[in-house]
Structures are given as C-alpha cells and as structure tokens.
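Retry 2 of 3 after timeout on previous attempt. Resubmitting structure tokens to design endpoint.
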C-alpha cells in the first residue's frame, strides 16, 4: 500500500489488471494474436502514452512499442528530454490485428467495435495510474481516449480537458503516431514532421518536471 496515493488506494494494481487482460475475450482479436500486450511503466506515472495496437514485434515480445515504431518513439522521447522509464506506455487496442501475407503479418487498423471493446482496459489503467496527462498518438488512440473520431491535425499539440475514467478528469494531448513518421516517403517531410512530433512531446516533458 502506498501513502502518497491514498486517493486511488481502491484501484486494482497494474499487475492484477495485466493478469486479467491476459485472458480477455471481449473481441475476436485474441484468436490470432500471440498474447495480450498490456501497458507498462511506473504505477504512478504522471504521463500515459497511448498508441494504436501492438505490432508484429510487440505481439511476440508481449511489450508495447519495442519494434520500429518503438525505436522512433524512443528517439523522439530522448530528443524531447523525456525518460521513457518515467512514463506509462500502452495501446488503445491490446491485441495485434493482422492478415498473413506470405511470411509477414500485415498490420490491420482496428475497427470501432474493437476499439470500444478494449476501452475498459484503458479505463482501468487510467484508474490505476491516475496520470495528469494522457498523450494520444494517432487517430485510433485519439478515438479511444476522447471517445469520438477526432481529426489529428486540428487537435494536435494543445492540452484538452477530457473525462478520463468515471471519477477523474485528465488532460489529453493529441499528436501523430510514430509509425506515421516511418511511412512518410519524402526525407524533408520526414524531418519536418519528426520535429513537430518532438515539439508536441516537449509539452509533455513539462509535466514530468
Ligand atoms: N504501434 C503501436 O501503436 N503500438 C505499439 O505498441 C507498436 C506499434
């Protein structure tokens, strides 16, 4: 039991939630995926980063953001002055959705019913961690976190007051998904968009000081 967080003493521990989520059957994605990829990070992190869903590498490792998008995220966090070990990192959808294409497993975007089915896990993570700030990276995360389809470019880079879990409001910052940066074909655009992503993360860095 902690004394510094008596206000969420009733919330389940992340370890308990992770164990429950391992058996989740709330949507069909568990059938083809290797495992549930639950969030990870300090129980009382001030900042929660939310991505879309685990990719191929994450599905195998059982950890969020450890593949190419994770490397991009790590680099941007470093450039923004953020220690990844101090933030809680999770995904809106916790199973990998893919179609087999020869030897590779091709990522598929989760549907609204899949995003909705997984949202209770995000709500439980929120209740357990109680971050001051949630960073929604990309359209799927923004849809889950804000509860509605949200255009990234109109919304990004500013703090929004959101409902959070039932009891506690949170601030939300919407930004792009690191995979978006990986997909940009043009090197100039890539560099420019990377700098914008780091600028968004610098707003986040202020919450960690
Ligand atoms: N993309 C995501 O949205 N999440 C991951 O964990 C990895 C890639």
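Retry 2 succeeded. Sequence:
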């Amino acid at each position: 039991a902690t004394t510094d967080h008596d206000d969420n003493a009733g919330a389940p521990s992340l370890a308990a939630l992770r164990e429950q989520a391992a058996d989740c059957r709330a949507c069909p994605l568990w059938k083809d995926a290797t495992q549930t990829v639950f969030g990870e990070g300090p129980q009382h992190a001030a900042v929660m980063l939310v991505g879309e869903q685990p990719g191929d590498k994450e599905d195998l490792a059982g950890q969020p953001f450890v593949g190419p998008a994770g490397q991009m995220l790590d680099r941007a966090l470093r450039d923004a002055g953020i220690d990844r070990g101090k933030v809680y990192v999770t995904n809106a959808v916790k199973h990998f959705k893919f179609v087999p294409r020869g030897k590779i497993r091709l990522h598929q975007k989760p549907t609204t019913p899949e995003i909705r089915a997984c949202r209770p896990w995000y709500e439980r993570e929120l209740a357990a961690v109680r971050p001051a700030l949630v960073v929604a990276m990309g359209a799927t995360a923004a849809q889950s976190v804000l509860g509605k389809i949200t255009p990234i470019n109109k919304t990004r880079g500013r703090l929004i007051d959101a409902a959070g879990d039932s009891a506690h409001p949170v601030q939300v910052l919407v930004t792009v998904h690191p995979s978006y940066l990986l997909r940009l074909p043009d090197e100039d655009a890539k560099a420019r968009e990377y700098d914008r992503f780091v600028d968004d993360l610098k707003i986040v860095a202020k919450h960690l000081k």
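Attempt log closed. The first strand starts at residue 47 and ends at 51.
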